[in-house]
TrEMBL record:
GO cellular component entries: cytosol
Native source organism of the sequence: Embleya scabrispora
Listed InterPro entries: Amidohydro_3, Metal-dep_hydrolase_composite, Metal_Hydrolase, Metallo-dep_Hydrolases_sf
Keywords: Hydrolase
Protein's UniProt keywords contain Transmembrane: no
Example GO molecular function: hydrolase activity, acting on carbon-nitrogen (but not peptide) bonds, in cyclic amides
Protein name as it appears in the record: Amidohydrolase
The Amidohydrolase domain, residue ranges: 57-579
Pfam families: Amidohydro_3
Amino acid sequence: MHDVGTPVYDLKIVNATIVDGTGADRFAGDIGIRDGLIVAVRRHDGPDPALDGAAAETIDAAGRLVTPGFVDIHTHYDGQATWDEVLDPSTSHGVTTVVSGNCGVGFAPVRPGREDWLIRLMEGVEDIPGTALAEGMTWGWETFPEYLDVLERRTFAADIGVQVAHGAVRAYAMGERGARNEPATPEDIAAMAAIVTEAIEAGALGFSTSRTVAHKAMGGEPVPGTFATEDELFGLGRAMAAGGRAVFELAPTGSSGEDIVKPASEVAWMRRLAAEIGMPVSFALLQVNAAPQLWRELMAESQAANEAGAQLHPQIAGRPFGMLTGFGTRNAFSKRPTFRALDDRRVAGELDDAAFAAELARPEVKAAILAEADLPSDPNVPGDSVNLAMQYMLDRMYPMDPVPDYEPLPDRTVVAIARARGEEPLATLYDLQLADDARTTLMVPMFNYSDGDHEAIREMLTHPASVFGLADGGAHCSMICDASQPTFLLTHWARDRTRGERLPLEFLVRKQTMDTAALYGLTDRGVIAEGKRADLNVIDPDTLTLHRPRMVHDLPAGGGRMLQQATGYIATIVAGQITRRNGQDTGARPGRLIRGAR
């Protein structure tokens, strides 16, 4: 509605149930917004007078929650941000600030002519289609400050901050020696350090690196910096701190379960680094099946570090972590010749989705695919070997309902369903994948589900050392849509969980607003208070729903990605402007590049 009279506010939200991001109890109240800031907050039970004055627009939020906009600190929009203003899938889930440049991969600095190498690195590590990056990206920079200048000229549906990535820095400073992970000399470290300091001074929010051998470029080479010595890591950490307030972020050795011996030694050097430079260090932490209790040890070490004055924060996920499978994406039949031929026809446009599904449903096609031997995996296709491996994961593969259950019981695995039907598991999997016109998805929880429930995740979320992250918005396009986790925290953990203890809504909002913003020094947002940025969500708590992920092909060059729809977001507001109404993009683009901590 629009008020009559001279507007005092650009936007007014009245009769809201306000969850302010601090963890304090919710309260009934009104919010006044002007010039992109919250200028008035009135509690209905407080001593201040009612929020008088006209507004250009008023939202009556009776029966609705109003929260700060969510701050997602782990995304990979480094390339997408050069062509896409929406920054989906994150902005579909109430995210109003994203931090990109994680895990040691990014696009600046870059030597002229080496752009394709960085694309192949990003494609290999983060499963972002290289064809989409090659067609969609607009370059125009060499140095990291120049990259920020390019982003600063663009507008977005959310604010975006960027970290400077070890992989790009190493390859720029050391050339092929850096790309091949050869040891860095003192001169190399000094050259990289100068680049990192320059990047932080220009506005980078942090420095990121990867030390897990699971992160590989298209050619199979680990990310530059994977085997960096402590001299190199500490040299770059000091350089980051010399540039200003920033975060040292990493995917550590063992984070993918590939080495269960080294994580403790990884935490030891991180603790020493955090203490020396006086800056936060944040690292990915998941429950791995090979050592399902190891995360507790690493959490305890991190808490001890914090109590001793070093800022060490394990970055954790809010649900099982793994991948999705189905006929529309990677699946156990992707290497069968008959399926491969059909999928090639779909990609070429010869078959639309309905025709593709109809072909797969033909009994003779099913019989042929089930009977065929697999083609060999292609080392030039990132993650291609995963397709073959899925055939051996059926005992931990779960079909997803239209409203997914992320905490399924063992009788929901493909193997259990096949046993109940008296069928071969692969035949059962084939039929399950045919659901929803062959667009259904199944989940394979590879991490955070060792015990078959969410109790470990609940402990991670509530641990005082942890920070919420790992949503990977913009990345792993064919495997996941974990950018929906902000919605999942509010639906599963606050309202819908049945197999264990839920968590308070106020805590879950704080975990992804004030706490994530504070880690990166973004203290101008993440809390509903006078003087803070007017980044907000208006949510219907009763109808908020997270739907089953689905593959779409809307990236440049027809590239595919998993998207997951949410309903129940009444409005998302960035800097006082409504960017989404009832889940639909409004076209407003108030989001800007964030330069440095606030």
